[in-house]
Amino acid sequence: MKRLRSSTLPVALGASLLSGCLGNVQDPPGEDPPMRVSTGLGAPVRATFPPVANALQPTCGTLDCHGQVGRNLRFYGSRGMRLDQMAVPGDGKTTDAEYDETYWSLISLEPEILSQVVRDGGAHPERLTIVRKGRGQEHHKGGMLLKEGDQRDKCLVSWLAGKLDEAACLEVKRFPSPIEPPPEEEPPP
Amino acid sequence: MLALVMITAAACDDPVRNASIAALGAESPDVPPGPLHRPGQPCLLCHDAKGGDAPLFTVAGTVYLDRGQDPLPDASVQLVDSTGRKFTATTNCAGNFFVTPSDFPVQYPLWVSVSLGEEVSEMGSAVFRDGSCASCHTDPAGPTSNGHIYMFEEPPMDLPASDCR
Q: Is any Cβ of chain A less than 8 angstroms from the Cβ of B129?
C-alpha cells in the first residue's frame, strides 16, 4: 500500500473506500488533523464495522469484560458500556459514536500487525491477539468465545479480510440463552 | 530472613483489591458480618480465594424489590452455566443470595434469571467472568451500569415487606 501523504490523502481515501477492502485510518472525529505524520498503516473499513460490533458485543463487550473503561479493548454499545453519560446499558440502540469508539479501540490494539493481516487479505488472523484470545489459543479470562469457523469467528475474520460475511454476523445475533429453549422458527411457506 | 518474608508478604498483597475493599466503607453498625450484611456490594471482592475467613463464593449478589432500596426476599435466582448445569439460589430477607463452589462450580459463561411466583426477569446478557452481581449492577444507573438488580417496575400491592431484623 502506498504511503499516505497529505497531498494524496483525498485520492487515497477515495480509492480505499471504493475498493471497500482496505480502510484509511482517519483522524479521530472532532479533532483537528495533526501535522502530517504518515503511518502507512491499513485497517478494515469503519463503514462495515457495525455488524461486527453487534456480533461481538454480546460476548466480548459485557460490563464485566470489555465493556469497561479500564480495558485496552473497549466495547461501547447498547448491550454494555455507553458513551453518552445520560445513556444506560440495555436502552436503545448502539449509536454511531459508540461504533466509532469501539472501532478505534479495536484497530488501535495492534496496528502494525492488523495492517499486515489486512494487507494479506485476512490471512492468518491468529497473528492478532484478539483472534487468539477469542479462539482460546492464548489465556483469556473470558474463555473461548470464537470457535474457528463458527459464525462469530467468520464475522470477525471476514471483516479483517475486507470481505465481510454479513450473514454470519447477523446469524450471531441469535445468541441463545440456555435458560429457555430458542423459539421454534416457523417453517418457510 | 525476616526481611525476605516481609518482602514476599508485601509482594503477595494486592493493593488494587485492598483499595477496592476499603472503598466499600465500613460495615453497618446494625448488621454484623454475615449473610445479611453489605447488600448491594460486590460480594466476591472479599469472598474470593484471598478472603481469609470469608466463605468462598462463586456467585453472589442482592435483589431488590424495585428501583428503590427495599430488598426482595424469597426470590429465586436461577443460574445456568455453559455446561448446562443449573442451580437455584434464594434471596434472604436482605435480598442477598450467595452460591458456594460446592453448590455450583461455575463454568462461564453464566446465564441468570430472577423469579418470584409467576414473574420472571431474565438477564439481558450472559456473565462471562465475574460472579459478583454488583461489580456491574451499581447505583446509580449510568453509562456503565443499569443500576441494581430489581424485580418490579411497579411492585404488587400485596407483597409482604421484608422482615429482616
A: yes
Round to whole Å and give the CA distance between A158 and A170. Answer: 13
Contacts of B78 in chain A (CB under 8 A): 179
Residues B78, A64: C-beta atoms closer than 8 Å: no
Report pTM.
Answer: 0.79
Tens place of pLDDT for every residue, chain A, 189 residues?
444 444 454 444 444 443 444 555 555 555 455 444 556 889 999 999 999 999 999 999 999 999 998 899 999 999 899 999 999 998 899 999 999 999 999 999 999 999 999 999 999 999 999 999 999 999 998 888 899 999 999 999 999 999 999 999 998 865 555 554 444 444 455
ipTM, 2 decimals? 0.82
CA-to-CA separations, B31 to A139, B34, B37, B59, B161, in angstroms, rounded: 41, 8, 6, 21, 18
Convert the pLDDT of each residue in B11-54 to its tens digit: 568 899 999 999 999 999 999 899 999 999 999 999 998 877 89
If DSSP codes are grouped into helix, strand and coil, which group holds residue A13?
helix
According to DSSP, the residues that pair with B97 across neighbouring strands are: B61
What values do phi and psi take at A100, rounded to 5?
-55, -50
Count how many pairs of residues, chain A against chain B, have C-beta atoms within 8 Å: 74
φ, ψ (nearest 5 deg) of residue B87: -150, 145
| B88: three-class secondary structure by DSSP | strand
Q: Which residues in A lie closer than 8 A to residue B142 (C-beta atoms)?
A: 85, 88
- The one-letter amino acid at B130: D
Which of B31, B33, B37, B30 shows the shortest CA–CA distance to B53?
A: B33
